[in-house]
Amino acid sequence: AFARTMVVLLSLEGRFLQVPPSLCQLLGYRAEELQAMSCLELVHPDDRPRTIEMLEALRQGKCRNLESEHRCLGRDGRVVWLYLDATVIFDDDGQSQQFMVYLRDITRQKVAEAELEAARAELEQRVAERTAELRRANEVLHQEIAQRQLAEASHLQALSRVETDFGNAGS
User: Fold this and answer.
1) Which distant-in-sequence residues (6+ apart) come within 8 Å of 74 by Cβ?
2) pTM of the model
3) pLDDT digits (tens, 9 = 90+) for 76-88
4) Dihedral in degrees, nearest 10, Cα atoms 90, 94, 95, 99
5) How many Cβ atoms sit within 10 Å of the Cβ of residue 31?
6) Is the separation of the CB atoms in 104 and 5 below 8 Å?
């Protein structure tokens, strides 16, 4: 199991300055390897533009803190979902020095959400199929009722003619 919250220090360029062992274990890298990398190298390609925007907003002082969810790629290529809370650390003169990022592995949560969404979609599909079946059965039933009503009306007419013919014959 990994630490509930991991604290990472990044340079303003996104290089790892301080990496907790739990992050190394989670992603499959040694601390020295991560410290030689930019955090963007680990971010899933589809999430990189958003991550770059986020780092730029922090670096330029447009905000002091950002929270987000990102997909990262472990050494083995598997996707690891991370919730991150990034804050700018300033020096005494108010200049941005580095980022402090709190990370939490939310992969299990994301997998559970995906499974729940798949189950919901399957259930909706089943409901749609069953509704269509019931609609068809209802149409067939209405047709049968209409046919029986016609047959009954035809029988009643025939019976009425027979009664009329017997009534006229008896007079």
Assistant:
1) 26, 27, 28, 80
2) 0.71
3) 999 999 999 999 9
4) 20
5) 14
6) yes
3-state SS string for the chain? CCCCCEEEEEECCCEEEECCHHHHHHHCCCHHHHHCCEHHHCECHHHHHHHHHHHHHHHCCCCCEEEEEEEEECCCCCEEEEEEEEEEEECCCCCEEEEEEEEEECHHHHHHHHHHHHHHHHHHHHHHHHHHHHHHHHHHHHHHHHHHHHHHHHHHHHHHHHHHHHHHHHC
CA distance 33 to 157: 95
Alpha carbon separation from 20 to 6, 58, 108, 121 (Å, rounded): 7, 22, 20, 39
- The token pair that represents 56 in the structure block: 């730029």
Q: Are strands 65-73 and 16-18 parallel, antiparallel or unpaired?
A: unpaired
Q: Are 9 and 98 in contact (CB under 8 A)?
A: yes
First to last CA, the chain: 102
Whether residue 169 is predicted with pLDDT greater than 80 in this model: the reply is no
CB contact at 8 A, 41 and 49 = no
- The per-residue pLDDT for 171 is 62
Tokens matching residue 32: 């020295």
99 has which bridge partners?
10, 88
